[in-house]
Amino acid sequence: MARFALAVIMLHPLITINGVFLAAVFGYMFYNAYLHPLSKYPGPKLWAATMIPSVMSIIRGDMAVDCKRLHDQYGDIVRISPWELSYRNADAWKDIYAHRTGHTLLPKEPFFYSPVSGHPNIVFSDHATHARIRRTVANAFSEKALRQQEDLIKVHIDLLMQRLNEIADEKMSLDIVMWYNFCTFDLIGDLSLGQAFGCLRNSELHPWVRMQFLLNQSFSFFMTASMIPFGFKLFDLILGNGVLKARDEHVKLTDQAVKRRLATKTDRPDFLYFMQRDIGSEGDRLSVDELVSNAGALISAGSETTATLLSGATYHLLRNPEVMDKLCREIRGTFKSDEEINTVTLSGLKYLQAVMEEALRCYPPVPTGLPRIVPKGGEVLLGKYVPANTIVSVNNWASYQSAKFFKDPEKFVPERWMGDTRYADDDRKIFQPFSVGPRVCLGRNLAYMEMRLILAKVLYNFDLHLLPKSNNWMDQKALVKVQPWIFGNVHQAKVPFRELAKQVIRHFLVLLEQRETKLFQTMRDELSIDAKKPKEMFEKNGQQVLIRPANDPSGCDLLVMMWRFGGKMYNMRKFEAPHGCVPFAAGDAQYLHMASEGLDIRDNSGRFLGTGNGRTVSTSHSQSLSASALDPLSEEFLKLWERESDTTVAAALSKNSRTNP
Ligand code: HEM
Question: Are residues 456 and 528 in the same domain?
């Protein structure tokens, strides 16, 4: 007893401190939930008491879905954190994002919108700076500019068609999201930096683009970090600053590319050409740092957004064959050849336009809300007082998927945009996928032009089929994983070895040049890769790389790649569908085999696996798969694919069968 009393006396200060701390925390939560000026707004009390539920929702990538659920439950305005309100109301667009007489234009929420490079740009800037920047950048998006840019754009779309043709010839399936991204990144890179990223040419993401994806995928962490005191420092500590490094590297590469482009005198009608010319007043001229910052912002704003919309449109078309048929009939009935397809000829295609709108409704590239902050003195929004420093936004997906605004909201019905009387009561005023007001999307016309051209050409030239594993593609997360890939699995592995070897070697060299890891550097020293002798055998036993080309001394027409670093499997995406290889994510060793017709397939140790038929892809996986020769279209193959890869959608491609004239 005496001991207990002594312990209590000794621990007394600690107990007191803990007690005070807990009381303060609970007091703070109670205040937030019941006494805070926002407490009269409806919403779950737990979300109002602390930011933990909203942060968790962002990190899980569930924010868009959670907001819809909360709006369905609580109404048009929901409190989704101690200091944040989400709106689902057509008039809220005007109140939050547009100029109103007698009111201040709400500023962008500063943490969410902090420029990566430190220099302001059209997206990340306060309203005063923005007005100056927008006057200049808008030159690059005028009707005149757009007309001149069509030829630049078409080069990349034509290259996309060429690459898809090759895939169709090889009867391979594909990751259509990836290919849309290749195209839109190349296209916007060309317009912003004066040079394409070469994604379409090399069938892979340029390191700059990969970094962009990493940054996009880390966006939720950035958002979360911005909400927590010292969040960025913490973030840095936890993630070993890989993402922050990527961010800095990204800025550096953009800087170099823009400066290279500025040093070139050219009449190409790209963004930098217009941003430097025809400037309204001398005071509007952008500094080089601002040009760099804006080029980066334009690539971010204009690449993944359009690719995302195209992916959503393609998925919904594939899930709704009657809509797909109708659209194909419109496109194929209008044009006699691919060359006839251009912006002017496409403008008459009403159903195509309706499909675009419906895709923007069902799969908006900006699914959540764009945060604005209520300034000092507070504001009246939708007739209700909102205190200063409250974050407010209109939630796109929650609005567009609501039965309050759209009949059959979950159905993909382009007819609702064409005056179909069944949908006469749809409230289209809520539909603002490009936002409104002075920060409305500047690239809207360019986006429509690109999306129409790409979709029309894809559907004119090809028949698409959704592979079974892609059926639930919509069950994905926003923000954490902005956009899962639609991987293609291989129908036919009849890849000319020479081409394949060239791709592999080129890839190695790119990686080596990028100095992605020290290991790669060591490899370069240790392996003498000679691109001119693709049939030469490169082998390094029991270690990182083994490439055994066709007709090698073991007597089989076989390509084996094994790539292992320090017990960790390196990402095999580089060798995916276009090269005829199958990417598997897990495990610590991997072999990919492609065999020509009639030839033996053997594994690394010479063990017989099967006979090649020109289409056979066999895989052996050290951890979970026993070596076997599989027909890639077989059920077994699909099951393995399902189990082994973290991908969600796959599509098969074949040339337009002209069954729908
Ligand atoms: C389907 C495609 C697209 C969608 C849905 C979309 C949507 C949006 C949205 C919602 C905003 C407002 C952002 C905010 O308030 O923070 C925005 C801004 C912007 N978008 Fe787009 N966008 C698309 C394509 C493009 C393209 C192709 C470009 C060309 C580079 C582009 C350039 C911009 C720019 C420059 C801004 C900033 C405008 C400003 O603040 O003055 N967008 N976009």
Answer: no
